[in-house]
Every structure is written in C-alpha cells, then in structure tokens.
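Field: sequence (string)
Field: structure_tokens (string)

Example rows 1 and 2, in order.
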Amino acid sequence: MKFKTNAIRFLFISILGVLLHFTYEWSDDNRIVGLFSAVNESTWEHLKLLFFPMLLLTLVELFFFHEKMPANYLWARTLGILSGMIFIVAVFYTLNGILGTNYDWINIALYFAGVIFALFVENDVYRNGKAEKLILSSAILLLLTAAFFTFTEYPPQLGIFQ
C-alpha cells in the first residue's frame, strides 16, 4: 500500500484508539461503551484500543472501497490485528520484566509501535500473500469481538485481565 494510505490508517487507528482509552469514563461508565473502550488499566482492555479501531477501519474500507481492495485484504488485516496485539503484549511484559516497573510514556509509545507493527505485517501480507481465507478471517474477527465483549463483563482471574 502507499505511504499516504498507511499514514491515514495510522492516524485513524491511533486517534480513535487514544479516544477509546477515555470514552468509558466520559460516558459515566456506560456498559455498552465499555464493550468497545478500556474499562480498566489491564493489558487486555488496552488491546481494545488497537482492535476496535482496526475493525471499524476494516468495515469502512470494505463498505466504501471493496472493489479496490486486494483479494487477500481481510486476511492481511486480520493478521495485522493479531500481530499488533501480540506485539503489544510481548513487548509490554518483556519491558516490565526488564525495568521492574511500568512507565506511562513507554506504554503510550508501545501502543503507537503496535499500530505501526500491525500495519507493517498487513502490508507484508498484501504483497506476499495470495490466499483469501475469507471465512477464517471473519471467524477470527468475530471470535475476538466476542472475547472482548465477554471478558469485559466476566474477566478471568489471570494477570492480563487484572
């Protein structure tokens, strides 16, 4: 994809993700808003800040530009989302282990790095992937959406959800 397209995607995802960090509190803890926004400071809830903006961007791009999208668009986006989320979790816990503490400025930078990584992987799959995998992509995105909704209401007693 072109640099301009990626820059617009980066800005869309990043701005919406930053806003989603605050929308739950701004909505006076509305449960519906909480399904899409971070409801606490857990790692899991912060993954929503990458997932839902990228999912919304996917829906917008498919609605308005589906005829211009490569055949492997949804598969590339799905792999980008998964890669960005894994990158954030892996680097977050690695840095916390190394530094022994948590710095907000590092977490913010990590979020933006995760968005860039997600778009990088997505673009790599566009260029090198041939498979459409429409059903698998859709199933993964639906499963992740259901997991975010479920674990927001009923978080397991695991560190990533605390």
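Row 2 begins here:
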Amino acid sequence: MATKHEQILKHIDGLPVGEKISVRQIAKVLSVSEGTAYRAIKEAENQGYVSSIERVGTIRIERKKRENIEKLTFAEVVNIVDGQVMGGREGLHKTLNKFVIGAMKLEAMMRYTGPGNLLIVGNRTNAHELALQAGAAVLITGGFDTEESVKKLADEVQMPVISTSYDTFTVATMINRAIYDQLIKKEILFVEDILTPVHETTFLKTGDRISDWLKYNRETGHSRFPVVDEQMKVMGMVTSKDIMGQEDTVLLDKVMTKSPMTVGLKTSVASSAHMMVWEGIELLPVVNDAHILQGIISRQDVLKALQMSQRQPQVGETIDDTITSQLVMTDNRPKGEDIYQYQVTPQMTNYLGTISNGVFTTLVTDSANRVLRSYKRGDLVVENMTIYFIKPVQIESLLEIHPRVLEVGRKFGKVDVEVYNEGKLVGKALLTCQLLDRS
C-alpha cells in the first residue's frame, strides 16, 4: 500500500498543468496534515513538476524530459529575474522557446517575435500588445508597469507579462546563465539514468529465510540482495558472508546488515563511484525519499557509465574544464618526467589578485590524475589530499607543476605535487587516489 507521501505526489502529478496548488487544499482533499502536504509539495518541486513563485503561489508545471532540460518555463524566468507577474498567470507553466531583445524598431521587433518566445523590452506598450497577439510572453525591464488593457490581453491569451527592476543586458545575462547551468546539469549522470529498475531487481523480504537466499543465488548467480519490508522499504542487505555457517531456516532479518548504505535517484554517478570504492561495496540499493526501493546499481554499472560520459562531447563548460584545458605539458623537460605549465589568468584569482585556492587544488588534482594514468589505465577517485602550503602567486604568473608518483599499486596510487613560479617553490601537496579497474 502506498504511503501518504506517495499518494500526495501521485495526486499532484495527476493535476492539470497550470493548476494552482496550496498546502491547505492538498491537506483537505487527501485528509492529511499540513506538514505532510508541505513536505510532499517540496518533493514535487525537487522533482521538477511544481514551481513556487513569490506573490503568485505554487503551480503545477510540465515535467521536463531530460533531453529538453535546457528549456526554461516562464515560471522559472520569474524566479531568475526576481520578477513580478503583471498578467497572464495561467501561462506561467509554458516553456520558453527563445528570447528576443526589443532594441529595434517595432516592425523589425515583431519579425523576430513568435509563439512561445519571450520579448525582453522596456516600457513600450505597443510592443507589449503586439508580442502577446503573436503568442509571445513579455518581460518588462527597468521596473516599469504596463497598461491595464495589456494585462487583460495577457490573461485572455494566457501568456505572462513579467516586470523586473533589472536592465535588459543584466536580464539577458541572467537567463543565458540559467540555460547554461542547466546544460551542465544535463551532462551530469545521475543514478536514475543507469539503475536497474525495481521490476527487474531481485530482492528478498524480511520474513524470508536463508533457504530463499540460496534459491535466488542459484537462479541468478548473484550473492548480494536488498531486503525490504511489506511496504518495499529497504531494511537491509544480505550477502554470502552474512549467511555463512547459518541454518537454512534462519530468518534473513536475523543475519542481514541492517540500515545499509543507499543512494537516491538524484545522486550523481561520480558520487556513487566514490562511495563504492571508499566502502568496498559492489552493489547499492536505490531509494526515494520515503526509503522505498527503486532499483539497484552495481560497481560495473557505475564504471561503464563513467567511461561513456568521458567519451561524450562537453556542451556546457564547468570551471574545472576551463582550468584544466589551460594546463599543458612543457616541451623542454627531462626524459621520463611529467611537467605541466599553467598561466594564472585574472578570472582564476581571488580578491587579492593572487591564485585562488580552489584553482590551485584543481591544478594539483588534475596533474596527479594525468601522471597516474600513465602508470595505470582506469578511472580515479581522490581519496585524500594534504596541501602543505600555498604561497601567493600573482596574475599572469607562469606556474610549473611537477607531479611525482611515490607509490602505485593495484587499487591505489600516491602522488607528490610541487608547484614552482620562476624557479621558486610556491606550493606542495600529497594526494592518495583510489584506482577503479575498467573490468
């Protein structure tokens, strides 16, 4: 039987797109406490099919497909620009196709403005009206209002008119940044992308016995299974080590590992890989917020996913990508040594004009990863990093980074990294990395 939390989520998911949602209304309809209703609405917001907007309320929006994540809804635009909705609230759930800057003559502006667009413009009432008639939404910059007739038209065509105190350039930058951030998120692999779903997962119940484990072990060849209760909540994990030397009639909840490590659907694959390596775990149950089993992931699933993602072209560049792309190996270096160079650019400095600690850490980590890969193919997870010291390094300085492998084994590596500027030692660190075999 579904929990109250799940019943509320199912109810919200079944509401029409654009419907207004309130804690009190949900609590009354489903006969639950307002606290339970509030938590479920927040979960729906996290899952991307509800949006809360100041001075408007909470509305049901269209759930985004993963491949279309770079598109924003008008509700999200309101939040991004700290806007106020002047009219057309019923259209806030709709998706923005593209935005147009209204810095041209009216006729030219309308040639670029079509259905699903967002016209960013100042206090030009004629442009507001024509954009709405063309099926576009309007974002008025500079904190200006618009005519009542325009607000009425917005309500009729169900396309929002939004006002923001920011100027046009700032607004365009903010929206571009939001789209860019979502492009980066799109590239990050989550557990939900690679899991074996629950209907394909072999699991055991708390009332089962060791004889049931033996039966599933013979049928599947696997030795690790999640153990769930009647509501499908994960209560434990049972492995061959747990049942060793036990009678076949012993209940699993007497021998299983209770409160096992689990991951959520939105846990990143990289984070799961680190957890598996660090704890020496081969298989993890995947659960939702109510701790209900959603499926499993294995170490093999995680490694395959990480290898695939490394072969994909990057669309949105992260700060780490920007830093590491400028880290290049020097031509004049002693044979058998890896020495890298890096030019400290203005955006890589702190408020004092010296190299940022975060940039230094990224340089050290990436150089250590590169030198370890020359010893052993595979994926790496930094387990421990000790930074002994960092001296101030000015803008435009040319750094030389010397990573040196101290020790490398089958499953770990230790690297000493020294950083020089004009022949002087300005930083030193020691890293220990876990090595993940690609088998």
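free_text_note (row 2): The first helix runs from residue 4 to 13.
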